[in-house]
Amino acid sequence: MERVGDARELVLGYVDALNTVDEAMRAAIPSLERLADVLGLVHSRRISRNGQVGTYSYTVHGAGCRFVSGNGTEVDVDFAVDGSEIFDLWRLRRYGPEPLDVTDQDLRTAAQSLQLLLTEVRPGWFSVAG
Is residue 42 predicted with pLDDT exceeding 90? Predict the structure, then answer.
C-alpha cells in the first residue's frame, strides 16, 4: 500500500509541475493561450523545436513536448486533438529528477483514486479534469 501512496504523490507532483510549466511558458510567450500552442509555434517556425524558455528547456516531439526544469525535473506531455494535455503511465514514471520505482498498476490505482482531479481519456492515458 505504501507504493500506491508514493505513486499518488508522484501523480499529484506531476500535475502540479505540469501546471507550473504551463504558467511559466505562458508568461514567457504571451501569445500562448494554452500549452498545446507550442506545437503551432514550432510548425510555423516562430520558435525552435528545441530551446530554453525561462527556467525550462523544451523539446517538441510528435504530438507533445518534453520540459525539463533547471533542477532536472522532467514533465513530458502529449496534446490531444482538442489541445488538452494528456499523459500516460510511462510519462508519470519518468517524472522528476529521480523517478520512483513504482509499477504501472501502482500508478493506475493512484490515478484512478484521483478521479475528481483526473479523467482517463483512454486506457492508461489521463488528462487533468475540468
Answer: yes
- CA separation (Å) from 130 to 38, 39, 116? 21, 22, 9
Q: Which residues of 85-106 are buried (b: 16+ CB within 10 A; e: fewer)?
A: bbbbbebbbebbeeebebeeeb
SS3 15: helix
Plot region of 40 (φ>0 → left; ψ -120 to 50 → alpha; else → beta): alpha
Give pTM, 2 decimals. 0.90
Distance, CA of 33 to CA of 112 (rounded, Å) = 29
What sign does the dihedral 91-41-32-81 (CA atoms) show?
A: negative
Greater confidence (100 vs 128) lies with: 128
Q: Look over the chain and give the mean of its residue pLDDT values, rounded to a whole number.
A: 89
Burial class (CB in 10 A: 0-12, 13-18, 19+), 121: middle
Segments of the chain assigned E as strands: 50-53, 56-61, 64-69, 74-79, 85-88, 118-122, 125-128
